[in-house]
Amino acid sequence: MKRSKTPPLVAASSRGAWPMIGALVRAYPGRSAAALSAVFVAGLLDGLGLSMLLSMLAVATDGDTADPSLPEQVALRVAATLGLQPTAPVLLSLATVLIGLKAVLSLLANRQVGYAVAHIATDLRLALIRAVMGARWKYYLQQSVGRLSNAVATEAQRASEAFQYSAEMSAMLLNSMIYMVIALTISWQAGVAAVVAGGLMLTVLQTLIRSSRRAGQYQTRLLGTLLSAISGQLAAAKPLKAMAREDHVDALLSDQTRQLRRALRRQVISKEALTALQEPLLAIMVGIGFFLSLVVLKMPLAAVLVMLFLLARVVSYLSKGQRAFQQVVVRESAYWSLIDSIEDARAQSEPRGGTWTVQLNESIRFDAVRFSHGDGRAILDQTSFEVPARALTVIVGPSGAGKTTLLDLVVGLLQPESGHILIDGVSLAELDLRQWRRQIGYVPQDSVMVNESVAYNLSLGETDLSEDDLREALRSADALDFVEAMSDGLQTRVGEGGSRLSGGQRQRLAIARALVHKPRLLILDEATSSLDAEAQAAVVETVSHLKGRLTMLAVAHQGQLLGAADHVYRLAEGHMVLQPQPRVAGDVVVDD
Ligand SMILES: Nc1ncnc2c1ncn2[C@@H]1O[C@H](COP(=O)(O)OP(=O)(O)OP(=O)(O)O)[C@@H](O)[C@H]1O
């Protein structure tokens, strides 16, 4: 599988919009530089185009070029370099070309930003998924699926949009700075007025930015808990519906939805208030400017018009920049929440183990293993026992005794507090964990089937497996006949959760899925306990056919599987006791 690179996410000690922008720029220096350069050149072209227009105005009105301003000088220099007479039509044509070029460059810059947004969202999603999948099993168990889905879907999207608005904000700030420079070169009063007016507006409206930030934070928090609650309730949809308790879900969710609505309302109000207040503020500033320059300072109208045009441009770009910044702060909390999730998961990353590799030719041996889930109760208490290779070993024991925990220890999902688990005499702690797990076929109690074809459910999307590999696994799991009898054979869709298959068929497909990679150890965790006698018999027959070909370790409460076992251990109160050869009475056995 082709793996795209994980972004170099930067942990920021202080949280906020600016550290986030800094982190994004550091993570994507090339894309940020390309977008900003395009924006900068577009701004320059725009400024140059405006210089042409101003020169044209000067040429067209009085033709006085004795004391030209900087923009006029630039325009005249450009015209001279091109060997053109600086007449009004020539300057107008040049201005049109430059402003057109600016439009093309802005389009390219926006496209660049759009690509970057998609790229960032994908990178953040991959970073989170990899970090979670690479974390310790204990960490994974503590996670809420809804919260993770929310982080992958919503938070990654909002975080990447923050980059888009940051780029937009930078473009507006650059443009306003370019106009500020032009204003300063024409008249220092215009420049100072632009700086003061812009600063005033940004300060006055800062409260609305703060309010947007709070609304964004609230939204991020609520979306996390809401999605967590929804996914939990959906997972329990069947019993809820069967017992007519849907109203209860409704009540639970409607409260959170109401709070989310309030947060969104506050966000919308802050956004609209900012837009609504910026315009009158700009109009008031221009009005005051007119009054001061025309009435108090008695400046000529032409100069005042140019000055106020520049002032309006500076303040208008700053306003747009502030509106973009508002969108950045609304999304900033989503970015930090996602970064927190990625860093939490990375901090819990699972050790890769050692470098030894084994083939499981001899045995799996527990040597004085002690394990508890951290609550003081020893699930395994100095436990020693052996699972011989190429035999079927079944573990029985009362519910909650720790049978699944023991399987998790064999797989290396959990680690013993003391003692050793030895595979062919090598401690599991020294084994290359991935190499070990790649030799394991795992069949859980309730095998999850996805609503795809039989073939997809066997390969789970792995493209290296041929149709022959799939058929061979189905044959070994005694599932080939029923699959071939289905309407589209391997391509038959199995329905949501495998609903178009019987329980026995589902389990045999799950065994085929576990066998498709030709494992050396097959683990069956209560693989037959939810099946009726007939389906159990079919699975047990499958398992019996596999005996001698690979090592099998199964957990069972009762049932026919015990009858097929080579060795049966009973786990109770932390100790494993080898059982005498099991007694089978019909399909009910032994666990006495
Ligand atoms: N992640 C966990 N954190 C804390 N306690 C756990 C965890 N997983 C299991 N336990 C506890 O450890 C004990 C053993 O659980 P385990 O699932 O291994 O038992 P089991 O023998 O497989 O039970 P059953 O036959 O009912 O499936 C139980 O008391 C359970 O509550």
From TrEMBL:
What is the recorded name of this protein?
Answer: ABC transporter ATP-binding protein
Q: Which residues cross the membrane?
A: 33-58, 78-101, 178-205, 274-295
The record's subcellular locations are: Cell membrane
First and last residue of the signal peptide: none
Query: Which part of the chain is the ABC transmembrane type-1 domain?
Result: 33-319
UniProt cross-references to PROSITE patterns, sorted A to Z: ABC_TM1F, ABC_TRANSPORTER_1, ABC_TRANSPORTER_2
Sorted keywords for this record are: ATP-binding, Membrane, Nucleotide-binding, Transmembrane, Transmembrane helix
**Where is the ABC transporter domain positioned along the sequence?**
364-592
- Kindly list the GO molecular function terms attached to this UniProt entry: ATP binding
PANTHER family given in the database record: ATP-BINDING CASSETTE SUB-FAMILY B (PTHR24221), ATP-BINDING CASSETTE SUB-FAMILY B MEMBER 6 (PTHR24221:SF654)
Query: Which InterPro entries does the entry link to?
Result: AAA+_ATPase, ABC1_TM_dom, ABC1_TM_sf, ABC_transporter-like_ATP-bd, ABC_transporter-like_CS, P-loop_NTPase, Type_1_exporter
Topology within the bilayer: Multi-pass membrane protein
